[in-house]
TrEMBL record:
GO terms for molecular function: protein-disulfide reductase activity. The chain crosses the membrane at residues 6-27, 47-69, 81-100, 121-148, 154-175, 196-214, 220-240, 247-265. The keyword Membrane applies. This is Cytochrome C biogenesis protein. Coiled coil: none annotated. Pfam families: DsbD_TM, Thioredoxin_7. It is a multi-pass membrane protein. Keywords: Cell membrane, Cytochrome c-type biogenesis, Membrane, Transmembrane, Transmembrane helix. GO terms for biological process: cell redox homeostasis; cytochrome complex assembly. It is found in: Cell membrane. The keyword Membrane applies.
Length: 395
């Protein structure tokens, strides 16, 4: 494909990144940014849109330079312990601030530096870009794999296109806010929505904190978050002033119960089964070739939210385990939570450029199918079932 085709794909991939779990913790700040200026004049909305785009592109610009000059892959920054810890602290601070009813906004000194209150949309764009970095979305894996083979100027252009795509839906809302103007801008119900957003931010903070702390501490943090959620639900349902204020926690409760029942039903029905994962090593690959066995390799990391989604859904599905057994397939896992030059070299050699990424190898050891980004059970099952065939099905 040409560079122009990849630029369009990068733009589209950036838009689709908004639908991935990775950027969910940034949603509260983006929504608050839009809500604050939705009733303002054209000039204020235009400046807010420019600030949001500038925040997004400033991170992607720095990431593009690091990729071109330091040979980084998508998500390398999250391998740094200090970065994940700092992000956890940031999300926790914003979450507490929002849960307390103060909204999601930077400290006042930031406003004095930036002026006119446009630091908040800048922060919204920047944080969304940061949170998109650990995971890839649809089309993004192929675009990044192409970018790593190009000149620095092309890498920079592709990363900028992804950034524009990530910010584009919110830029459109800021430019055409007619539908949003019908939403009430105040009231007790809006305070409850703001608190829900705070809980989402705290969940994001807890997730990243568990990647830098001991497993036991991580369990305690999730227990504390669930306790906070339960306390908030009880208090909001009991003392909520008015129907609207009680409706928000009621909807949260219904969604939580429905999700728990669905998850419990799937597990109770035996719909999940763990795969016999082994670490990815040269010896494991050699043994698979000697045994003429196909191989499934998963590249993952503790900080990759999309990877965890795949592991709890696709990889845990009993149909995948049955297909693996039928194909007599070896399943190997590469953990890129921390920097690992050997595993990173494998990722590149198989055509990957970010996480999540999986590859199905033929018995000969050659690539049969690459699976970047998020994918379904049926997609992986088909790749496993055809892994012994001679025809190449890799897109």
């Amino acid at each position: 494909m040409t560079i122009w085709t990849n630029l369009l794909l990068a733009l589209f991939a950036g838009v689709l990144l908004n639908l991935t779990p990775c950027v969910l913790p940034a949603l509260p700040i983006k929504l608050r940014t839009i809500a604050r200026v939705v009733g303002s004049g054209t000039r204020q909305r235009f400046l807010a849109a420019i600030a949001l785009l500038a925040g997004t592109l400033s991170f992607f610009g720095a990431l593009a330079l690091a990729t071109a000059m330091l040979n980084w892959t998508w998500g390398t920054l999250f391998q740094a312990f200090w970065f994940r810890a700092a992000l956890a602290f940031l999300l926790a601070g914003l979450g507490v601030y929002s849960l307390a009813g103060r909204g999601v906004q930077p400290p006042q000194w930031v406003y004095r530096v930036q002026g006119n209150g446009y630091a908040e949309p800048y922060l919204a764009g920047f944080l969304a870009a940061v949170l998109s970095a650990p995971c890839t979305g649809p089309f993004l894996g192929g675009v990044m794999a192409f970018a790593l083979t190009q000149a620095p100027s092309t890498i920079f252009a592709l990363f900028m296109a992804v950034g524009v795509g990530l910010a584009l839906p919110y830029l459109v809302l800021l430019a055409r806010p007619r539908l949003l103007t019908r939403i009430p801008r105040g009231g007790a119900w809006l305070s409850r929505v703001q608190q829900v957003m705070g809980l989402i931010l705290l969940a994001g903070a807890t997730f990243f904190a568990t990647t830098v702390l001991a497993e036991r501490v991580g369990t305690l943090l999730w227990t504390a978050w669930l306790g906070t959620l339960a306390f908030w639900l009880i208090r909001a349902l009991v003392v909520g002033p008015g129907f609207g204020a009680r409706l928000v926690p009621a909807l949260v409760l219904v969604a939580g119960v429905a999700g728990a029942v669905t998850l419990g039903f799937d597990r109770g029905a035996g719909a999940q089964r763990a795969l016999p994962w082994q670490p990815l090593t040269e010896r494991a690959l050699a043994e698979a070739r000697t045994a003429s066995a196909p191989v499934l390799v998963e590249f993952t990391a503790d900080w990759c939210i999309n990877c965890k989604v795949l592991e709890q859904t696709v990889y845990a599905d009993a149909a995948i385990a049955q297909a693996v057994d039928a194909a007599q397939m070896r399943v190997l896992r590469a953990d890129l939570t921390r920097p690992d030059a050997a595993l990173d070299a494998y990722l590149r050699s198989f055509g990957g450029a970010g996480l999540p990424f999986a590859v199905v190898l033929k018995p000969s050891g050659t690539v049969h199918r690459r699976l970047p980004d998020l994918f379904t059970v049926s997609t992986l099952k088909a790749a496993i079932e055809t892994s012994g065939e001679q025809t190449r099905v890799d897109p």
